[in-house]
Specification:
Layout lengths: L1 E3 L18 E3 L37 H9 L6 E3 L10 E12 L5 E8 L5 E7 L6 H15 L6 E4 L5 H11 L2 E4 L4 H13 L23 E2 L8 E8 H9 L1 H4 L2 E3 L3 H4 L1 E3 L4 E8 L3 H9 L3 E7 L4 E6 L3 E7 L4 H16 L3 E7 L9 E6 L7
Parallel strand pairs: 4-7, 7-8, 9-16, 11-18, 13-17
Antiparallel strand pairs: 1-12, 2-10, 3-6, 4-5, 5-6, 10-13, 14-15, 15-16, 17-18
Helix pairs in contact: 2-3
Length: 374
């Protein structure tokens, strides 16, 4: 059995989020197509609420005052875990967008939400809609650093393509590297929590209001030649092996990316089989190096078009592989997607020199999450 729920033990305001529960030819097309591997659909996932004691407030505030502040949906948050070395927080996740809240002028309120991957840094601030520009954002970034005693981050990740110009300009003026990426999982989960516990309780909340800046999901395009593999296969690994592979990335100096499974609250049996995609290439290292610069987000089996879709960055989707559409291959692709869903969206991408090899040149641990409701 597998369960996935957001672990709130490192959150200033506890988060209670619910997340719903083969071998084939790759480009170039002349390569012989081996058989797909079957996947038993034997997983289950249950979204469960998680609650815990919030991190202790700083001295000078009583527990009662802190509770009142946390319960006020109009309040703003500025928090740094006192046990965290400020110098260690070099990468932020940022969202600067409108909320389903009207201000006293009847205009949509905007909000800046900032965190790091471990949520040791948590910051929120509301803004009127007539000051939304790169100067406001730049000043806010500097203000956060001054207020919490933080150095400017080296990188800032964001997941909305519509804000790319403003965020990029603000970052450039401060010497920060902007990274458009949907791998802002801590931020996305926090936004889901804030929607339920903050925005819907705000006196200006507008029920049924649609997000002003909806996330893009464009039609997949042709794969660049530099990303071509030679063979690929739907595969599965026990969760224990997935953990081992992810944790060994740094020691083996391999390409790839992992996830904070503890923060995400992923509870999976050691022997639970996690679905993944294995790609083999005689030029595995260059392929993995190219992939490493793309902010790999997810892999999807598109049964309607008999293809595998690779999502990278914010809104870039590639036709990563194709296969001959038959009842058998369709069934196998559907089984792979069902297995991924049963694991709460957890899956992986592995790049190898040979599909029969036990070693990976690149390994990305991936998680499909629905877009935030704001």
């Amino acid at each position: 059995m597998a369960s996935l729920s957001f672990n709130s033990t490192r959150i200033k305001n506890p988060i209670t989020t619910k997340i719903p529960p083969s071998k084939v030819q790759i480009h170039p097309p002349q390569i012989k197509t081996p058989n797909l591997r079957n996947f038993p659909i034997c997983f289950s996932v249950s979204g469960s609420s998680v609650s815990s004691t919030p991190l202790q407030p700083e001295t000078g505030n009583s527990a009662f005052e802190e509770e009142e502040l946390n319960d006020d949906p109009t309040s703003e948050l500025s928090y740094l875990d006192p046990e965290t070395d400020p110098e260690s927080i070099t990468e932020w996740e940022v969202d600067f967008c409108s909320r389903p809240i009207l201000d006293i002028r009847g205009k949509k309120t905007w909000e800046l939400v900032v965190c790091d991957v471990s949520l040791s840094l948590q910051y929120t601030k509301y803004f009127p809609n007539n000051v939304i520009n790169s100067v406001t954002l730049k000043n806010a970034i500097v203000s956060i650093c001054d207020e919490l005693g933080l150095p400017l981050p080296e990188k800032i990740k964001f997941f909305r393509s519509q804000m790319q110009t403003i965020i990029t300009r603000a970052c450039s003026e401060l010497g920060i590297k902007p990274i458009p990426s949907k791998r802002c999982l801590s931020l996305v989960l926090w936004l889901e929590e804030r929607y339920e516990t903050v925005y819907t309780r705000h006196p200006g909340f507008q029920k049924g209001s649609k997000p002003l800046l909806a996330l893009d999901n464009p039609f997949p395009m042709e794969l660049p030649e530099s990303l071509y593999g030679e063979k690929w296969a739907f595969v599965q690994l026990p969760f224990s092996a997935v953990q081992e592979e992810a944790s060994s990335l740094e020691t083996r100096f391999a390409f790839g990316a992992t996830l904070d499974l503890d923060l995400l609250g992923i509870e999976v049996g050691e022997e639970t089989l996690i679905p993944g995609l294995a790609v083999a290439s005689s030029r595995a290292k260059p392929l993995a190096a190219w992939m490493n610069g793309l902010e790999v987000c997810s892999v999807e089996a598109d049964t309607s078009r008999a293809s595998v879709v690779l999502s990278v960055g914010i809104s870039t989707r590639y036709v990563y592989a194709t296969y001959k559409k038959t009842p058998v291959t369709t069934s196998e692709a559907e089984a792979w997607e069902a297995a991924k869903k049963a694991c709460g969206g957890l899956h992986f991408l592995a790049i190898q020199e040979d599909l029969d090899s036990d070693d990976c040149v690149g390994f990305w641990l991936l998680l499909d999450l629905p877009p935030p409701p704001v």
